[in-house]
């Protein structure tokens, strides 16, 4: 597939890296020449320096032959204009735009056929807010992801010494929670993926991915780690777009404080937030944190625009007694560095928001994609079509499907029924199948399994 990406920032670079690993032809456009050269030194792709809203620059990038345009510059207006040009002048079949302004997102006419003709609008700030809200609801989890309109949940937890399932083989899970049908779909031990078999023993410190119906997921989590008390007190460091959205999402159900260093921004936040307390100051100010009772916090979330401030603020809050700390970090090297230390969750914005776009790019009828372990693995939800002759999945039992190494089918959703994918489950047309892929190099092989042959009517 030939893809043109507009914008070489964190989101654009992450999208390029993810799609390039799947043998796509990628061209990236940006105004920043040095940034493009740094990207080209790291990845095998083409770059074009110029304004992404100019037709000449788009032509130079090869837009006339592109299968997909991904407009993720920092400017909503540039992204929208580029999508309009891609449709009317160059007949690009699919167009994705990063859109941050609520005015654009709330008006379907602006984005639709009568407007800028955007097939998929992505708002990274809103995706991140929803992601963080899930972590507040499940304070024990490292990652919480939904499939099938919320009917199925995939949760990553760190197994702790003394947990009921720790030191026991995976097959014992059924006897521990006999009333719940659940599946452990992956185990990561010291950053290495272990394909879970019945005799695989869970060890303390393992990162375990559990799949179950959403109503049952807490019961499964209790077998692997100590359940924390519910979150009540939250402090958000950073009152930018993400901090504001998160405070508004949480303030009705939790005690929320927001620390923002810009006084004018503090005044604006105070006007827009109903119950959250807005504090003017620096999240790395030890005296301020002590005055505001950081030691009594259930959760400290650092979402400023500065990675170093997020890291230092989170480390300081943890040292002063905050029960759990989450830090937003743009640089991937930093994420891997601090994730295993004092910071409970180091979150990469680009990896958290890339799923929507990947679902739009995947072959076959893929309706949801979630990036796992900072992009190292993926979980996807695919809809089954065709019959036994036209599709390599339809009408077959799970044990008959030839999945590539490191991949497994975790669950099948049939209407309102959630079925864990045991070996004898037969997959039918219309089923939503959730697949875990620990090695992204095998994604194209997984996608082909769900494709229907051209002769199917």
What does this structure look like?
This protein is α/β, with parallel strands linked by helices. The chain folds into 4 domains: 2-122, Rossmann fold; 140-221, Alpha-Beta Plaits (2-Layer Sandwich), CATH 3.30.70.1450; 233-347, Rossmann fold (3-Layer(aba) Sandwich), CATH 3.40.50; 353-450, Alpha-Beta Plaits. It has helices at residues 10-20, 33-42, 55-60, 76-88, 102-105, 108-111, 124-137, 173-176, 217-221, 241-250, 263-272, 286-291, 307-319, 332-338, 349-361, 443-450, and strands at residues 2-6, 25-30, 46-49, 68-71, 94-98, 120-122, 143-147, 152-158, 182-189, 192-194, 207-213, 233-237, 255-260, 277-280, 299-302, 325-328, 345-347, 366-372, 377-383, 407-414, 417-420, 432-437. The strands form 4 sheets. It has a 6-stranded parallel β-sheet with strand order 3-2-1-4-5-6, sandwiched between helices. Strand 13, helix 11 and strand 14 form a beta-alpha-beta unit. The longest helix is centred in the first third of the chain and has 14 residues, at 124-137. The relative contact order is 0.10. The model has no long low-confidence stretch (mean pLDDT 87).
Mean pLDDT comes to 87
Overall form: globular
Structural domain tally: 4
CATH topology of the largest domain: Rossmann fold
Question: In this structure, how is the largest beta sheet organized?
Answer: 6 strands, parallel
Strand content bin:
25-35%
Major beta sheet, strand line-up = 3-2-1-4-5-6
Number of DSSP helical runs: 16
């Amino acid at each position: 597939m030939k893809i043109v990406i507009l914008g070489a920032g964190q989101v654009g670079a992450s999208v390029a890296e993810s799609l390039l690993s799947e043998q796509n032809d990628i061209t990236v456009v940006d105004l920043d020449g040095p940034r493009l050269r740094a990207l080209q030194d790291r990845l095998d792709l083409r770059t074009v320096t110029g304004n992404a809203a100019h037709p000449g620059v788009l032509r130079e990038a090869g837009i006339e032959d592109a299968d997909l345009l991904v407009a993720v510059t920092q400017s909503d207006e540039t992204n929208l204009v580029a999508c309009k040009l891609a449709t009317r002048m160059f007949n690009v079949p699919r167009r994705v735009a990063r859109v941050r302004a609520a005015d654009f997102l709330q008006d379907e006419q602006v984005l639709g056929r009568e407007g800028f003709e955007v097939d998929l609008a992505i708002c990274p700030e809103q995706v991140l807010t929803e992601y963080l809200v899930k972590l507040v609801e499940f304070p024990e989890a490292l990652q919480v992801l939904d499939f099938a309109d919320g009917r199925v949940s995939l949760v990553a937890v760190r197994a702790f010494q003394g947990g009921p399932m720790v030191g026991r083989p995976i097959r014992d899970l059924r006897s521990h929670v006999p009333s719940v049908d659940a599946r452990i779909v992956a185990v990561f031990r010291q950053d290495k993926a272990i394909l879970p078999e019945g005799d695989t023993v869970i060890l303390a410190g393992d990162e375990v991915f559990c799949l179950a119906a959403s109503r049952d997921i807490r019961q499964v989590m209790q077998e692997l780690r100590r359940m924390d008390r519910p979150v009540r007190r939250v402090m958000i460091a950073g009152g930018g777009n993400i901090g504001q959205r998160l405070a508004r999402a949480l303030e009705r159900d939790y005690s929320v404080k927001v620390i923002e260093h810009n006084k004018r921004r503090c005044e604006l936040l105070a006007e827009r937030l109903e119950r959250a307390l807005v504090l003017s100051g620096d999240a790395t100010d030890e005296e301020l944190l002590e005055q505001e009772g950081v030691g009594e916090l259930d959760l400290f979330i650092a979402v400023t625009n500065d990675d170093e401030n997020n890291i230092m603020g989170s480390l300081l809050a943890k040292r002063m007694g905050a029960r759990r700390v989450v830090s937003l970090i743009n640089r991937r090297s930093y994420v891997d560095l601090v994730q295993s230390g004092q910071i409970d969750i180091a979150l990469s914005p680009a990896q958290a928001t890339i799923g929507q776009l990947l679902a739009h790019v995947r072959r076959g009828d893929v309706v949801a994609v979630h990036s796992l372990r900072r992009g190292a693995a993926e979980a996807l939800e695919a809809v089954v079509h065709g019959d036994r002759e036209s599709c390599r999945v339809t009408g077959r039992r799970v044990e008959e499907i030839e999945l590539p190494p490191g991949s497994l089918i975790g669950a099948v959703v049939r209407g309102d029924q959630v079925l864990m994918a045991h070996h004898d489950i037969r997959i039918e047309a219309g089923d939503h199948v959730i697949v875990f892929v620990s090695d992204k190099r095998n994604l194209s092989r997984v996608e082909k399994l769900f494709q229907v042959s051209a002769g199917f009517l």
